[in-house]
Amino acid sequence: MLSVIIPVYNEEKNIVPLCQDLLTVLESITLPFEVILIDDGSMDHSQKRLQEVAAWNPSFKIIRFRRNFGQTAAIMAGIEHSQGSIIIPMDSDRQNDPKDIPRLLEKLNEGYDVVSGWRKERKDNSLVRTLPSRIANRLISKISGVVLHDYGCTIKAYRRSVIHGVKLYGEMHRFIPIYAHWMGASVTELEVSHHAREFGLSKYGLNRIVKVILDLIVVRFLDRYFVKPIYLFGSFGLLALLLSFLSGGYALYLKFIENTSLISTPLPLASVMAFMIGIMAILLGLVAEMLVRTYFESQGRSAYLVQTTTNFSHPDDTSP
Ligand code: UDP
Ligand code: MG
Q: Which of 5, 6, 9, 172 to mutate to test the pocket of ligand 1 (most atoms within 8 A of CB)?
C-alpha cells in the first residue's frame, strides 16, 4: 500500500483541486493507496474542505490537530497513522505535483529505499528563498555526508522499513534521508516539477534558516555523540582548562617577571568571556535536546534496524 502524507495549514483554496489531481494520478497506478491529510490547526475553512474530500472517497483520511504544531509534527502524525509500506509526504499548496508520484515509485523500484525530490527549477522568490537554500543544501550535504541538491523539498518517497522508529522534531522532516542513510538505507534523488503558489501564503520567513541550522547541529550531535556525550563535553572542558592554565600562567609571568599590572589589559578578557559564553550556550542547548529526547523516547528506542526477517509471522516478513 502507498500512503501519501499531506500537512495542511490554511490552504482552503488548494485542498479540493489538489485532491482531484491526486485522485486522477493515484487511480491510474496499480498500488492500493491512502491519502492522509493532517489539518495543522488551520484557522480558515480548510477543515470544511477536508471533510468534503473525505466524503467523496474513503481513501482520503483526515487528522485534525488541536492547534498549530508545525509541518514536521504534521508529517510525523501522518506517518504514525499510516499503513503503507511506501510513504510519500508532499505539500498541500500545490507547489509539488502529484504527477511525480508514479515517477518516484518507479525510481524506488529500481532498488532504492529513499528517493528525494529535487526542485531543479524552483518557482520561489530567488533572493530570499533559493539562494539561502542553496547554501544550506551544500552545508547539510557536507556535514551529513549525504549529498542531495534539495533537502527542503517535501515530496520524497520512503520505504517504511527505513524510517521505522524515526522521531522528528522542529524542522527535521527535511533530514529524514540523513537518518535513513545512517541506518543503512540507499538514498537517491529525482528531479520533480515545482509550481508557483497560486492561493494562500507561504508560512515561513527567513527565521526558518536559523531553525534549520540549529536542527542540523542537533542531528550531527545525535549521530556522533549521543551514546558518549562526554567525548564532546569532556574534550571541550579539557581544552578550556588548558587555555585557562596557559593564560593564568602567562598573567603570573607578566606580573612577577615583567612587573606588568594584571588589570592593564581588560579587552582580551572580555572577548574570551564572550567566546566561552557562546560555546556554553550551544552545549547547554544540546544537553536540553538530550533531555527532551529521553523524555519522549525512553519507552521505544532502538539502536539497530532490521533489513529482512525470515519465518516470522509479522507483515514485513520477507519469507517466500
Ligand atoms: N504547513 C503546515 N504547518 C505549518 C506550516 C506549513 O502544515 O505550521 C504546511 C503548508 O500547508 C504546506 C507545507 O506545510 O502544505 C509547506 O508550507 P509552505 O508552502 O508555507 O512552505 P514553502 O513552500 O513556502 O517552503
Ligand atoms: Mg509551499
A: 9
